[in-house]
Structure formats: structure tokens, C-alpha cells
Specification:
Elements lengths: L2 H15 L11 H5 L2 E9 L2 E10 L2 E7 L4 E8 L8 E7 L2 E6 L1 H9 L2 H22 L7 H13 L4 E2 L1 H9 L9 H17 L3 E4 L2 E4 L1 H41 L15
Antiparallel strand pairs: 1-2, 1-5, 2-3, 3-4, 5-6, 7-9, 8-9
Helix pairs in contact: 5-8
Length: 266
């Protein structure tokens, strides 16, 4: 490795390795949001090779990949490596930034475009979540929920878990909605009600449609059709009755209509 590259290594790696990640890196929740650490690795022919743990003088303390995990302790001189051999992953909150080589790392730290992009996306997501939280979550009623489950079954999805259903109905943003947990309980109540009436069968935490589901929807749609026909019939009867009453009133002379044509004129 050239002297300038060696100098760059010695200036850069201690800062990166001083903020090395723990063995387990939280990737969700509040702990995941607070993560700010680096994993420095060296690949060989595109395959895992070394994880760098520390730098002492010109030597890197590493653990080598044994085919299953990183477990073999090794020491390797930085003079045997190129700047492009390093792979640095920055776990930055819930985001991850990959740097391919030390030059790429230094360039993006001096001109932090990836970080600006992350912060812009976070602000937009925060605004989107804020606007979503202002909306009222509306859980489908029993029959509408059953129709939705049947539609999913026709698409090949006949196993339903409450969390997945909530996400399908409201997007993943429901998790941070102030009434998200309440709506989840309401959805689970409807699912249990459908189990009690036989349209669903519960297997552990999963709900599966039964043959009664389609029959229930067909019966409901038939009742709706009959109700619609009854309403139409009532309106037809109303207008027919109104016409008969009006004609009767006119014939009785109670109300006189002006003649449209005066036949007595000469």
C-alpha cells in the first residue's frame, strides 16, 4: 500500500473502529433509532473474509469468516491491502449506508449527500405520519370485512393474521397512530365474531375462511337485493298513489285546472 494510502488508513480507521457496532445491532423501535455505529469488513472475491476490530500500528486485528460465521482471530498488515478492499457499513438509526472503500467513505463524509437524503426522507416520513395520525382509522364492519377476506382468498391468500390485516387495511403507519391499538382490538373482535358464527376458523393466531363465508355473503347480497326492490316498489306505489289522488281531486272539481285549449272561441 502506498504511503499516502497508508496515512489515510491510519487517519480514518481509528475513528471508524472507535465507534464499532456491538455483536447485536437493534434495527427497530427506540433502540434502533439511537444506533450510530460502524461495521468495517474486508471481502475477498465478493465473499465474506474479515471483520476489522482494531488497528495497532500497521496491523489490523480481525476475525475471519470460517464458512459459517466470523470466528477465527487474525492479524493482517494494512500494507497488504488496498483502500478499495474495505467495506464500511454505517448503521445510522434505522438506516444503513454502505461505503465501498475508504476513499468512498471519506468523500461521503466530507460531502454528506447520503445523510442529507436520509434526513430529508425522515422529515417527509414524519410529516406523512403526522397527517396520517390526524385521520380517523375506520375498521371495516363485519360484512365488509368478510367481503374483503373473500377477495383476498380469491387472490390466493386464505390465511389471515390481525397484524397483517391491519397493515393491509391501513398501511404500516397504523402502528404509530394514536388509536392504532384500539382499532387492532376492534378488528380482532370482528374476527372472533366471525369465528363464533362459523365464517372463519381460528388456527393458533391465524384465521381461515370456511365454506360458510361465501354462503353468508350470498345471503347478505340477496337480502340487500330484496331490500332495494322493496324500496323501489314503495316509491312506485307512492308515486302511483299520488297520481291517483291528484286525478281524483281534479275530477271532483276540488281543484280546477286551466284549460290548455279554449274550444268555445270562434
Amino acid at each position: 500500500m502506498q504511503r499516502l494510502a497508508q496515512l489515510l488508513c491510519k487517519l480514518t480507521l481509528p475513528k471508524v473502529l472507535g465507534r464499532a457496532c456491538e455483536a447485536i445491532i437493534p434495527r427497530s423501535g427506540e433502540k434502533g433509532a439511537k444506533v450510530n455505529c460502524f461495521v468495517t469488513s474486508i471481502d475477498r472475491a465478493g465473499e465474506p473474509y474479515l471483520i476489522v476490530l482494531g488497528l495497532i500500528d500497521d496491523d489490523l486485528n480481525c476475525i475471519e469468516w470460517d464458512g459459517t460465521r466470523y470466528s477465527i482471530e487474525r492479524t493482517i498488515s494494512i500494507n497488504s491491502l488496498r483502500l478499495s478492499d474495505f467495506r464500511i457499513t454505517h448503521y445510522y438509526g434505522h438506516s444503513e449506508i454502505q461505503f465501498f472503500g475508504l476513499l468512498d467513505f471519506v468523500r461521503n463524509r466530507l460531502m454528506p449527500c447520503p445523510y442529507l437524503k436520509i434526513h430529508v426522507i425522515r422529515r417527509l416520513n414524519s410529516l406523512d405520519q403526522y397527517l396520517f395520525n390526524k385521520k380517523k382509522l375506520v375498521t371495516k364492519q363485519r360484512t365488509d370485512l368478510l367481503k374483503y377476506l373473500i377477495e383476498r382468498a380469491l387472490d390466493g391468500k386464505n390465511e389471515h393474521e390481525p397484524l397483517d390485516l391491519m397493515t393491509d387495511l391501513h398501511s404500516i403507519k397504523w402502528v404509530l397512530h394514536p388509536h392504532g391499538a384500539e382499532e387492532q382490538r376492534k378488528l380482532e373482535f370482528y374476527l372472533e365474531a366471525l369465528v363464533d358464527t362459523g365464517e372463519l376458523r381460528k388456527i393458533n393466531c391465524t384465521y381461515v375462511l370456511t365454506g360458510f363465508a361465501l354462503r353468508a355473503i350470498e345471503d347478505y347480497e340477496e337480502q340487500e337485493r330484496k331490500h332495494t326492490e322493496n324500496v323501489k316498489m314503495q316509491w312506485r306505489t307512492f308515486w302511483l298513489t299520488s297520481a291517483i289522488v291528484a286525478l281524483t281531486v281534479v275530477q271532483a272539481g276540488i281543484v280546477k285546472l286551466p284549460a290548455l285549449i279554449d274550444w268555445t272561441s270562434k
